[in-house]
Structure formats: C-alpha cells, structure tokens
Design brief:
Multidrug-efflux Transporter Regulator, Chain: A, Domain 2, 12 helices, elongated, mainly alpha, 65% helix
Length: 247
C-alpha cells in the first residue's frame, strides 16, 4: 500500500504544505517516485509523520525533534525541559485565575494590585498608580504591610489633608502636618513598612528603588514629598529616643 502526498497528509491530519516543509528541513525522508514522477509514501513515512506530529503537539520544537535521534538520555532531557516550562505555565495560569476570581467580586478594581480592592475607593489616581508600580517592584510581604497600613486608616481626615496639600504650602504648614502624620507611620501595623525589592541581584534591587523614587517624584508634589520626609525623620527620632529610654 502506498499513498500520495495528499493522501498521506490527510491520514496524518496535517497539510500537504507541512509534509513538504518537513522534507525541506530533513525531518521526513523523501519517498521514491514512480515512473510518472509522483511520490509514493509507505508505512514508514506515515509512522514518522505521526511521530513528528505527536512530538510537536507535546511542545517539542522542530529543531529539537531533528536532534533527538535515538538517544534516550537526550530525549529525556528535552521532555524534562518542556515539562518544567509547562509547570511554570500552569502556575502562571493558576495565578491569573485567582486574580480574575478576585476581580470578579463586587467592588473589585482593576486599577490596583490584587488584594487592594478593599481600599481602592479611598485612593486617588496617583495613589493607585504608585501601588501598581510598587506591586511590580517589591515583595509580596512588603505589599502586605502596605495593604495593612491602608486598611487600618487611623485618620482618614488627615489622609485627605495630605492629598490636598498644595505644592506651595508654607514651612509651618508642612511641619505641622508632618508632626501629625509621624505617630501614624508605624501605628497602623505591628511593624514598620519596609519595602524589599523582588530583584534577586543587588543591581536590580538598586534599579527598583530608583524607579520607586522616580515614581514618587512624578506622582506627588514637592510639598507632599517634603512632608513625608519630615514625618519619617520625626518617627525615626522618636523611635530612637524610645530605645534609649524605654521607661
């Protein structure tokens, strides 16, 4: 029994173009031709074509199909690599499904990172933008601490006063606001919010911190940034004083 190119392609569930391409790249041997010039494929060609089809369906690149040969160890390493890639893909898809489930809940917002929908209503556009950037740059533990602080909201009126602070606010206004904010910096959570970059290398960690600094400067006006700086200095000084004199 022998088949034409079209018949072989139909049997294997592929196209004539695919069969010809496999000939071109050396994956499928050319069959002998009949006196009339037509190719006549045999069982061995169908078997090889079905093997190629199965391997590519499993995710094996054509270049690796050609290189696999009959080496069992080589084949095993290829399959293991593909399995590892699939495991990563499955994990990514599971994470996507979890996030979609969260976003499907009433009141959920796609403008803030997962887990922050509960505080999204009280945030302004610049706050949401900063959270989105932070979630990409900093660890899950860091973002949990940020979320806890936002959920606590010890003084919503003070939050709004800070957000409404004009960039030309005078020295006295900045200092007074900083002194009111300072006690709340660590009060909302049991521990201070320390932003730890996700980056695995020191260079990338520095880049993450630099990007966060640029984001702050772009999203908040100079007076707001100055108030935050002053508040942190006051809070740090109060903490040092407490350590020195715990009584």
């Amino acid at each position: 029994m022998a088949w034409s190119t079209r018949e072989l392609a139909e049997l294997a569930g592929c196209t004539v173009k695919t069969v010809r391409y496999y000939h071109e790249i050396g994956l499928l041997d050319e069959p002998e031709r009949e006196p009339n010039g037509y190719k006549r494929y045999e069982v061995r060609h169908l078997t090889r074509l079905l093997q190629i089809k199965r391997l590519t369906a499993l995710g094996v690149p054509l270049a690796q199909v050609a290189a696999m040969g009959t080496d069992p160890d080589g084949r095993a390493s290829v399959f293991q690599a593909i399995d590892a890639e699939l495991e990563a893909t499955v994990e990514r898809l599971q994470n996507i499904r979890r996030e979609l489930a969260v976003l499907s809940q009433p009141g959920a917002s796609p403008d803030v990172p997962a887990g922050f929908s509960g505080v999204a209503e009280s945030l302004r556009d610049n706050d949401r933008a900063l959270l989105t950037i932070y979630a990409e740059l900093f660890s899950d533990e860091s973002m949990d601490a940020v979320r806890q602080t936002l959920e606590a909201r010890p003084n919503p009126a003070l939050d709004e006063e800070f957000r409404d602070l004009p960039e030309d606010a005078d020295e006295a206004t900045r200092q007074a606001l900083a002194e009111r904010i300072a006690p709340l910096i660590d009060a909302a959570t049991d521990h201070s919010v320390t932003l730890e970059p996700k980056a695995a290398t020191p260079g990338r960690a520095r880049a993450a911190l630099s990007a966060a600094g640029h984001a702050l400067q772009a999203l908040y006006n100079p007076a707001q940034l100055d108030v935050l700086r002053r508040a942190h200095l006051i809070s740090q000084a109060d903490g040092d004083a407490h350590k020195a004199d715990p009584a």
